[in-house]
Specification:
288 residues, alpha/beta, TIM Barrel, eight-stranded parallel β-sheet, 12 helices
Length: 288
């Protein structure tokens, strides 16, 4: 496993981190039971992964042996608080469960942080109290992505979580500014996200495709129509260019390896529905 510097935080993260909340193809396979989640965590640690993302609170599935103080394991938490005033209680609750003194990476939506409703101040107070080590802004929505591509990272933050994969590269300008400014970069949707099965997605001929094609391929069907504007550019494109001769579709590890060729990337968060998916992806990665 390769390890990379996470901005100026002093943390060294595994190039692949274990994503939380959404299993890789949750829309296809359903959420794995907690016991399988625990097996995934254990196997990920055995394979050298040291970054574990808890989504909005995936920590009930974290094995006890991975909890507690450690300079070798890092935990990221995605904030589900509705207001800045709820932050400290939420962080305290997760720290108690993890048996740790600090959340290593607190992930907050850029929209919340930039709202002017007390989020920067609340996070600064948590960092001053030693309960949060670093702040990562989530660039999920279109306006958040555009702000990052245009201006790069915020001065008072430590990192950003951005959408970046072989067919969706609009964040490269912001990532370059992050590298220049010494900011960390975490990646989401390296495999296109949880909406489509990897084989279907990469076998599809996306030339001239429409949003209707995404809806047709998704097991959730019309349910995703309301946010298909966001999904379409993340999943549609020439994935088959990653294929080698004789391959019907590329292995997922090759897509992750492509993302890691960008030196601005600190770590790629990938969620898995099973130990087999974890081993398949890491085993299929290739050196740059």
């Amino acid at each position: 496993m390769e390890y990379r510097t996470f901005g100026q935080t002093g943390m060294h993260l595994s190039a692949v981190g274990l994503g939380g909340l959404l299993a890789r193809y949750e829309g296809v396979c359903g959420r794995p039971p907690d016991e399988e989640k625990r097996r995934i965590y254990r196997r990920a640690a055995e394979l050298g992964i040291n970054l574990f993302d808890m989504g909005y609170g995936d920590e009930p599935a974290i094995p006890d042996e991975l909890k507690g103080p450690s300079d070798e394991r890092f935990f990221a938490l995605k904030v589900g608080a509705r207001t800045a005033g709820e932050l400290e209680a939420l962080v305290d609750r997760h720290l108690t469960h993890l048996r740790r003194e600090a959340i290593d990476i607190l992930r907050v939506h850029y929209t919340n942080y930039a709202s002017g409703e007390g989020w920067p101040e609340a996070i600064a107070a948590l960092k001053a109290a030693g309960k949060v080590r670093s702040l990562c802004l989530i660039r999920h929505y279109e306006a958040d992505q555009e702000a990052y591509a245009d201006r790069g990272p915020e001065a008072d933050t430590d990192a950003d979580l951005v959408i970046y994969n072989y067919v969706c590269r609009s964040q490269e300008a912001g990532m370059a500014r992050a590298a220049e400014g010494g900011k960390g970069v975490l990646i989401m949707k390296a495999l296109g996200g949880q909406w489509l099965d990897w084989e279907q997605q990469t076998r599809a001929d996306w030339a001239g495709s429409s949003q209707d094609m995404v809806v047709a391929l998704s097991p959730e069907g019309e349910h995703i129509r309301s946010y298909v504007d966001l999904i379409h550019p993340i999943v549609s494109g020439p994935w088959r260019e990653l294929c080698r001769p004789g391959e019907a579709f590329p292995p997922p590890g090759r897509a992750v390896s492509w993302v890691l060729e960008n030196g601005a990337v600190s770590s790629v968060l990938v969620a898995f529905a099973s130990v087999a998916e974890l081993e398949e992806t890491l085993g299929g990665m290739e050196a740059a």
